[in-house]
Specification:
Blueprint (H helix, E strand, L loop, with lengths): L1 H26 L14 H4 L20 E3 L2 E5 L4 E12 L2 E11 L4 E11 L5 E10 L4 E10 L5 E10 L3 E10 L14 E11 L4 E5 L2 E4 L2 E5 L2 E5 L7 E2 L3 E5 L3 E5 L2 E6 L2 E5 L2 E3 L3 E12 L2 E11 L15 E14 L2 E10 L4 H4 L7 E11 L3 E12 L5 H4 L4 E13 L6 E13 L4 E5 L2 E4 L3 E14 L2 E3 L2 E20 L10 E19 L2 E5 L2 E14 L38 E14 L4 E13 L25 E10 L2 E10 L4 E13 L2 E10 L11 E11 L6 E10 L4 E12 L3 E10 L9 E11 L2 E6 L1
Antiparallel strand pairs: 1-3, 2-3, 3-4, 4-5, 5-6, 6-7, 7-8, 8-9, 9-10, 10-11, 10-12, 11-14, 12-13, 15-18, 16-17, 17-20, 18-19, 19-21, 20-21, 21-22, 22-23, 23-24, 24-25, 25-26, 26-27, 27-28, 28-31, 29-30, 31-33, 32-33, 33-34, 34-36, 35-36, 36-37, 37-38, 38-39, 39-40, 40-41, 41-42, 42-43, ...
Length: about 775
């Protein structure tokens, strides 16, 4: 807004005015300047100046000042220099021009009259009808001032009074970030602020506005008799923008944050929230900075007036609150050390009081090293669920003591290839088994009650060779694993007891050999370039042990698709590994059109040739069950993406069971972006998979659109929706209308979810208002 802008520009204007004044003071003190051809006959008048005149003028240590004018007259009796006709002064990047200039040597004042124009080095232009400067430039006065910024902002003032070390006063002032705020069609746009007086006090660093009025699209929308705010470019204590909210459980909510600048390195924020149903929520934050980093502490507490509003949930208690702390510093150029910690009375506190919509939090301390070729990261971590979860739910979450990773890529001399060294150490502790139950007879277990440690070290060498058009990349490696686990495995039915205690250890060495063979072929046809690349991989992992972590804590997700088709080990992390001899066969095809369009296709299939198939091994996370990799000949996968029409991007994925040609997964999406509007749509299909407990296929279609209204400039409507095809019901729907002219943005929307959504039957209304200016958007509410 204006005060943020004015505080930045004020210094530039004062510097320009001071430069003008000193330039005038030196005009008579630099005789060589009068020899300029631009001064014409004024050079002949130089001898008429009295002896010793230049000795009485203050001197500056700086670059030479350039001065030009059509005529220069000196009145010896009045000790007055008058310059007329295209007067121009250049000083340190500032240019000051005017039609008439009078410099009074005795009074040490300068007076510009007629089309006065000051251009600052940053491109800001100041124009006025009248400019008065006093020496030693303690004060400057401009009348009918107009300031135009490089970004197009406009400041108008009847009078502008600049007093060095004191105040800057603008009478009858206005600020518009959009300049005149009239577009090419004659429509009024944007916002502006007008005030009877705007005063910036350099001692208190406050901006005072008398009778300020906020105009939206030229219409007055808000007025207050008086307003004082701190300079937002300075670190001053001040009230921040209040916020409002509402929920059925808390009632209406009003938050008024107050920022306290305790010192150059310390900030405090106190943010009380008054609620019509729950009373007062106190919140505070402390931020501390030091040369190598920063720390932050946040605290929240509320004595609920009506705990029964959360009946049946974990928030049904009188006192609720939370504590958060973060910190990070750089002890050495390649190292970062830090922590993040969150404690709470109940896991749903953040969601209930609109503090955060995160689904989880991680308490951790870490140290990370990132060098030119090496990487090391060490952490201790505790994982917490956020939401309506009890302590019994939290006991199922793991603690990682420790979680360490290391990688180093060594480039051998004389182009002998590269060596990749990778290490992992993972310790897991969990107080309760995370048994999700049985889905249509299929048991799911995502974590045991356990104490486990698993160490992995793998070293690989690879080098690419080009022979006869083939790109051949052999790989040789070895992996070592050491693990110990003390865990409880529930009996086959989750409700049965007692659980079975198990203790196991493992030492395993896995030799690895692979070769990647590609034959890229390039062709030029018409207005396009084609690249066809057949790909064959042979991968051997010489071990019959797939459960290297004994229990599976970090390799629980897998979907066979084009992005991992040509991977040597498709498991997400180190607790599982592929085994045996496998061949990955497929190809890559790409078309690049001269107009910028393209089409990219990648597809193929994987074959288990010998040895145990790791994806067919029993794992209660069901990571490989029904994945298409648990059989000798995997599913066929295809991925495609492209843009054949400017603005239109499309993509799709397909997973096909070659035994009968059954489609097991499919996805298709497209987006079109044009001037002011966009269209998007998608389709997802997942076939029934009885082996995983899914007896019905899953299908979903979605669409979204943003369309400008042809009869209302700057207005657009947005709509989105998703439909659950399998259950014949809607998943989500939303619509809204928004105005955005580049300086002013406001609108409203409604969003609702259906019964099969992960957040079912949720209805929300939102409203937004943003003022956008030279300092970025200033959101007033949402």
């Amino acid at each position: 807004m204006f005060w943020a802008w004015a505080s930045r520009r004020r210094g530039s204007l004062r510097a320009a005015l001071m430069a003008a004044g000193f330039a005038l003071g030196l005009a008579a003190g630099v005789p060589q300047a009068f020899a300029s051809p631009a001064l014409g006959s004024t050079a002949e008048q130089a001898p008429l100046l009295p002896s010793g005149f230049f000795d009485n003028v203050p001197q500056l240590n700086g670059p030479q000042i350039g001065i030009s004018a059509d005529q220069l007259v000196y009145d010896a009796n009045k000790r007055e220099v008058t310059a007329t006709g295209a007067v121009e002064i250049d000083y340190q990047g500032y240019t000051i021009t005017g039609q008439h200039l009078v410099f009074e040597q005795a009074a040490k004042t300068a007076h510009f009259v007629g089309n006065v124009r000051v251009r600052a080095p940053d491109g800001t232009i100041y124009t006025a009808t009248d400019l008065r400067l006093s020496q030693p430039m303690r004060q400057a006065l401009m009348r009918q001032l107009t300031i135009t910024t490089p970004e197009g902002g406009l400041v108008l003032a009847g009078d502008a009074d600049f007093r060095k070390g004191d105040r800057t006063i603008l009478d009858d002032a206005s600020y518009s970030p959009c300049g005149q705020c009239i577009d090419a069609k004659g429509h009024r746009i944007g916002w502006s602020v007008k005030a009877a007086r705007m005063v910036y006090d350099e001692k208190t660093l406050n901006v005072t506005l008398d009778q300020p009025t906020l105009y939206l699209l030229g219409v007055p929308m808000a007025w207050v008799p008086w307003l004082r705010i701190p300079d937002p470019t300075k670190r001053l204590s001040h009230f921040e923008m209040p916020s409002v909210d509402y929920s059925q459980q808390t009632g209406a909510m009003l938050t008024v944050p107050y920022f306290i600048a305790a010192g150059p390195d310390d900030d405090y924020i106190i943010a009380p929230t008054l609620m019509s149903r729950q009373g007062l929520l106190m919140a505070g934050e402390w931020d501390h900075r030091f040369p190598a980093g920063a720390t932050s502490v946040k605290a929240y507490a509320v004595d609920q007036l009506d705990p029964g509003a959360f009946a049946g949930e974990v928030g049904d208690r009188q006192w609720r609150g939370a504590l958060q702390s973060t910190g990070e510093f750089v002890p050495a150029p390649t190292w970062v050390v830090g922590w993040s910690y969150t404690a709470f009375t109940d896991a749903n506190f953040f969601a209930d009081y609109r503090i955060s919509n995160a689904k989880s939090s991680v308490n951790e301390a870490y140290a990370t090293h990132l060098g030119r070729n090496d990487y090391f990261d060490a952490r201790v971590q505790q994982f917490n669920l956020l939401g309506n979860y009890t302590q019994a739910d939290q006991d199922k979450q793991a603690v990682a003591l420790p979680n360490m990773r290391y990688r180093n890529v060594l480039y051998l001399p004389q182009e002998l290839g590269e060596v990749d060294v990778m290490g992992r150490l993972l310790g897991v502790s969990r107080n309760a088994t995370d048994e999700r139950g049985v889905t249509n007879g299929v048991r799911y277990n995502f974590g045991d009650e356990e104490t486990k440690v698993h160490a992995t070290l793998e070293t690989d060498w690879q080098k690419q060779y080009i022979a006869g058009g083939f790109a051949l990349t052999p790989l040789l490696g070895i992996r070592g694993d050491a693990a110990y686990a003390d865990y409880y495995d529930p009996t086959p039915t989750p409700i049965a007891s007692p659980a079975t205690h198990n203790e196991a250890d493992l030492l395993n060495l896995t030799p690895i050999a692979a070769i990647d063979a590609r034959y890229p072929m390039v062709a030029r046809a018409g207005f396009s370039t084609h690249v066809l690349e057949p790909i064959i991989q042979l991968v051997y992992r010489g071990s019959d042990t797939t459960d290297l972590g004994i229990t599976n804590d970090d390799a629980q997700s897998f979907v066979l698709e084009d992005t991992n088709l040509f991977s040597y080990n498709r498991f997400a992390d180190s607790d599982r590994q592929e085994t045996g001899l496998r061949a990955n066969v497929g190809g890559h095809y790409q078309i690049d059109f001269d107009n910028g369009g393209y089409l990219d296709l990648l597809g193929g299939e994987s074959f288990q040739l010998a040895g145990p198939n790791a994806f067919a091994q029993t794992d209660l996370t069901q990571v490989g069950t029904g994945s298409g990799m648990d059989v000798a000949n995997s599913y066929v996968v295809l991925g495609a993406q492209g843009s054949l029409v400017p603005g239109l991007t499309t993509g799709g994925k397909l997973q096909l069971d070659p035994d009968g040609g059954r489609v097991t997964r499919a996805g298709l999406g497209a987006n079109y972006n044009g001037p002011g509007y966009s269209l998007g749509g998608g389709y997802v299909y997942i076939a029934a998979n009885p082996a995983r407990g899914t007896v019905l296929p899953q299908q979903e279609i979605s669409a979204s659109a943003t369309i400008p209204l042809p009869f209302a400039d700057y207005w657009s409507v947005q709509a989105s929706g998703a439909w659950d095809v399998t259950n014949h019901t809607w998943l989500a729907a939303g619509a809204g209308a928004y105005y955005d002219d580049g300086y002013l943005n406001y609108g409203a929307a409604v969003y609702a979810t259906g019964p099969t959504n992960t957040t079912p039957n949720d209805l929300r209304f939102t409203g937004t208002l943003f003022l956008k200016g030279l300092s970025g958007p200033h959101g007033l509410g949402s």
